Amino acid sequence: MSKFDHFDLDGHLLQLLVAVVETGSVTGAAQRLGVTQSAVSHLLDKLRTITGDPLFVKSGRGIVATARAEELAAQARGLLRQLQHFAHSGEFDPARWQTTFTIAANDFQRDLLLPPLAARLRSQAPGVALRVIPSGVPRLETLRTDDCQLVISPRPPEGSDIVQKRLFEDQYRVFYDPAVRHAPFDEAEYLAADHATVVYEPRRSLDLDQHLANKGVNRRFTVMVPSFSALPAFVRGTPLLATVPGLLARHTLSGLASCPPPVTCPTMPMYMIWHARYQQDAAHRWLRAQLEAVVAPALAEAAPQAGFAGASSMA
Question: Does pLDDT of 304 surpass 60?
Fold first, then answer.
């Protein structure tokens, strides 16, 4: 019979389990938690005894989580947030906040907003580790199951328990390699060209592509990639056109030329999205405020390179 039971579990053990699952190594978990590798190994042995599962097995030079460890880590994240809510039910002090906060975002939102957010966290909440996962096409279950605590996307999923707030709007622009071709003069030249675009999932194109197709604006796509970051390698050195958010000129598509589309395009709104369970949570509200605070500087820095409609205070 084990000398440990569930009363031996505490927040530190739960945090350790999540850290090893997310980093995929004892070393990475030790670095994240600020402890020694031997301490992590010792506490993992304690967890194995409590759970009756190996939790992690060797795979090549590293380790991988067992199915049970993945399941327990998902539960541990929820329990840790409950503990944080219990501790922060009064005044919230970000400097004392210890957690891993998971945000789902695709490469466009990630590169534009999350590095300055991470800088704010390092300064004001050094105990918070920021974990970024791809959002793809956001799903309700991602927020309902607490796989992440915040989503940044132009596509808020519909649900009565989902809350959203618009962060900004961007203007679409046509990107091309100026060493190979000139900007399309008019709609006819635009439609005659070969185009590249992003398809995050099979048969799930960009909202703009669907909008134009519904309007009878039919383009010939010869390259379809799974992310914006893949576009430059295909556009450079070719006559391809890519009609995508203009703010990509700041990072991902820097070095390419761009022009306004010769066809009527809608603007692209960007939202932060969360589950209603966090609506009044002091820590979550603080982090949402930090994300909003980095929007205007990020857009201002990008202004010389791309047109955009600006930040919005609309919920």
Answer: no
